[in-house]
Amino acid sequence: MTAATTTAPEPPRTGSPRSGDPAPGRRRSRFTDRLLGGAGGGWFPYLLVLPLVVVLWGYVVQPMLATFAQSGDGDGIANYTSFLSSAGVARSSLLTSLGISAASVLLCGIVGVAMAFLLKRFAFPGRRLIEAIILVPAALPPLIGAISFQLLYSETGILPRGLQQLFGTESPVLPFDGIAGVLVVHTFTMYPFFYLAASAALAGMDPSVEEAAYNLGAGRVRVWRTVLLPMLTPALVSASLLVFMTSLASYTAPLLFGVDRTMTMQIYINRTNGDLPMASTYASVLGVVSVLFLLGMRWYEGRRSYRSQSKGVSAHRREISNPVGRWLALVGSLLATVVLLAPVATIAVVAFSVDGSWTTEVLPTEYTMENFVAIFAEPQAFQPIVNSLQMSLLATVGCVVFGVLIAYAVRRLTFVGRGLLDVAVMLAWALPGTVVAINLIAAFSTGNAFSLGQVLIGTFWIMPLAYFVRFLPLVFRSSSAALAQLDPSLEEAARNLGASWWRAFGTVTLRLMLPGVLAGALLAFVHGVGEFVASVLIYTSSTAPISVAINNRMYSFEIGTAAAYGMLQVALIFVVMVVSGRLQGGGRAVREATRWTN
Amino acid sequence: MIGVTLESVSKRFAGAGDTAAVDDVDISIDAGEFFTLLGPSGCGKTTTLRMIAGFYFPTSGRIRFGGEDVTRKPPNKRDTGMVFQNYALFPHLSVAQNVGYGLKIRKVRGADARSRIAEALDQVHLAGYGDRRIDQLSGGQQQRVALARALVIRPRTLLLDEPLSNLDAKLREETRTEIRRIQRDAGLTSIYVTHDQAEAMAMSDRIAVMESGRVRQIGTPQEIYHRPATTFVARFIGRSNVLSLPVLAADAISVEVRLADDTSRTVAAPREHGLTESATALISIRPEHIGLCGPDEPEALAGRITDLEFTGMATNLTVDVSGQELMVATVEVPDGLAVGDRIGLRLPAARMWVVHP
User: Fold this and answer.
1) Among A235, B93, B244, B256, which lies 20 to 30 A Cα-Cα from A129?
2) Kindly report the CA angle at A58 between A55 and A61, in degrees rounded to 5?
């Protein structure tokens, strides 16, 4: 076959005869050439990736191993065997946690899928309003969210007392306590996983597929069973795994509704009782279960395959034509609106109530501006606000630097171990906040190489570090989503025009990623300001963040002041949501990241 | 201007096993030449172009720009101007800023830069569009901005990666004439990648036809059309009948073969055709070179029409000659000719050519 390669007469070659060696000046600049020239060279990716690996190893993986090591301190394997004995707290905590998670999946699945179908497939009055506010309860910071549900639905809550007064009964009507209360919080804050997944699947579904089934003679039920449900399955499985993981990690709801026998509560209780090896054991078990779920999810998402092709054609919405149905729909929408807005409204109302004035009444009776004045005017009350802003800002800067670079490395560079880098970030995402805190305690209660030999526990620095580990995946995800939208040839064009890798990255790639990065950074920042779960395990009196202050005020029955702090967090969240929504491409990044909550 | 030389260049991608995306390619492109890499998708043409641009480094072999070895040089040091398939215009920059990007890196500033940008935009008929945003331009205009951006840096070679594939048919023809004009005026060495053989034929000084990572033939459009080296080239460039015929005699430059009607033809063959008496030769002949006549005339193959398709400019016939189907294209069709009719075909020896498998 080689004979066929050339038949044309060899054209006369032009150009000067090639010179022997490159000029001596050239050789010297080879190293800088490659450093500045970058990607494409064999070792350049490793140069970029090395610091990323050090950070992920030092602050995510190595602390996790330290926790494993600590869990065996003294008693060896004994801590783990307590999970097997039938009488122990350990076993019942694990079972309760798993049970709550399973029930949460079921409840969230029913609510989320029903909402998705109602809102995406039917047209009725009030639909747009509900679509606009449907994510509000889930957007609340974990502590203030749980508090609002406690204020609304617990035995001393507004609704049971209101009903009690309405019907004149002896005790509050329909109070939610204990595990039921936890499930209410979980349902309201986690159904968006199902709602978002199902509505995305419904929106992405080519309506002609469904029409084809009808055209072939299938009835409504059959279409549901044979077409819609199978196409929704991947979305539902992913959402189930997410809700299960998130429920397992849930800490504030069991705390507020007094369910002590859950994994997260046991971590907290053992830590406060000073039994660090046992806390580490719980953290290890919870960590391992979470990681297994993470791996299961990645495996499942890797093999899911249904994607409809057609674009721009939205699925048909059915008008509800039956007059009774219309009235029912209207009443239902009103009710849903009230229920969705009630948590925020409760916090807002309570924030203006006088501390200690609200006892047995349905709603607070005395109102004042004093709570807001107090948290800003009293230096001691103002300190948590300063702490939170400061620590979140620090953590956010770190998240941006490393999140963007890791996203770039994972998406755009080829190097050995790329998959591991990706998994390491997702590990930080999968680990519950309590586990992250225990990991950092285990790793940094003595000096080690990654803390430059310093003991970090009990210092200011452990808090921003925890926030960094927890929220790095947010910036990573939003950056990664922004990068996925970006054609790699843009960077190549810049390189072709003479830009070094650094210059091409700065003037083109990073510049175009910016809206996504910014949206992720804002999200990381508000999550930092709302952080409670890890903070409560590692704060010191001088570094207490807002959420810890809220928790302390709740304990001393200063509910009004607690809610005023909460309103700051809520206000910040809504500002950030509006800003991100305006950022070009920011909306996508936020959607990517809404898959994350506590 | 400089020429570009590829010496036994191969590229294997990690994880792709033993298969090479580009396999031992030798190409020598003259200064000022318009050279096209042509082939179906997956043939390695884009990989070859990207190695010339510096986005991939070859696994083995050398690439030279003139006398300079650029094999391991990063893309930003090569001074090539590339036009990408999707244009890769920077969406956050205006038209003028896009065109000026490479100038800024070359530290061309102020009035000098402005006049060069204006000149480049003028060259692609976009004078006055400098302040537009990229998303305010049509596809054709974007394509021309991409071209201006590549030309303004006065590159050593111009690289074009299927730049016309996103344009509609009419615009594509206009633009290809325009690209050719600009290239000729500047005397710019250009390397063009396409899968469209008509485009390649119309634009190129020379074409390299690639298949499965290897160069199958390099030559002028005429050489490639009239003297295809292999069956693949014969069929990929235009349409071609490839007949397997027994060899009666062979010498260095020709082969005598026997046709179905027992007549023989002496057909020109490439050097090193390696055919000997009683071997089977592959002979290509273009549909438009086959003449029509009555079925029983001498020196003609008799056959039956199995398909007849009128395309306006020509009529395409499929004729069954003792079990083998031949494509015939003719401008003049005898009146009343229909599927099922018997017909005679004339195969002139001068239009036949021996090809490799």
Assistant:
1) A235
2) 105
Separation of alpha carbons B99 and B141, rounded Å: 13
Backbone angles phi, psi at A530, to 5 degrees: -90, -5
CA dihedral A21, A26, A32, A33 (to 10 degrees): -80
DSSP B31-92: TT-EEEEE-STTSSHHHHHHHHHTSS--SEEEEEETTEE-TT--GGGS-EEEE-TT----TT
Q: Which of A19, A33, A507 sits opposite B67 (nearest CB)?
A: A19
Is residue A409 a contact partner of residue A417, using CB atoms and an 8 Å limit?
no
Q: Is B13 on the interface with A (CB under 8 A)?
A: no
CATH number corresponding to B239-355: 2.40.50.100
Max CA distance (Å), chain A: 106
ipTM above 0.90, yes or no: no
- Is A499 in contact with B206 (Cβ distance < 8 A)? no
Round to whole Å and give the CA distance between A21 and A18: 9
Q: In this complex, how many residue pairs, one in chain A and one in chain B, have their CB atoms less than 8 Å apart?
A: 147
Whole-number Å distance between alpha carbons of B116 and B99: 9
Closest residue in chain A to residue B89, using alpha carbons only: A490
**Tens digits of per-residue pLDDT, B100-153?**
999 999 999 999 999 999 999 999 999 999 999 998 999 899 999 999 999 999
CB A33 to CB B77 under 8 A?
yes
Report the alpha-carbon distance of residue A66 to residue A460 in Å, rounded.
21
In terms of DSSP bridges, do strands B254-258 and B241-250 run parallel, antiparallel, or are they unpaired? antiparallel
Ordered by start, the domain boundaries in chain B are 4-228, 239-355
Q: Which residues of B touch A37 (CB under 8 A)?
A: 74, 76-77
**Can you list the domains of chain A with their CATH numbers?**
84-304 (1.10.3720.10)
Determine the Cα–Cα distance for residues A223 and B147; give it in Å rounded to an integer: 52
Chain A CA closest to residue B63: A18
Q: What is the pLDDT of residues A542-577, one digit of tens each?
A: 999 999 999 999 988 899 999 999 999 999 988 888
Taking CB atoms and an 8 Å limit, are B102 and A503 in contact across chains? no
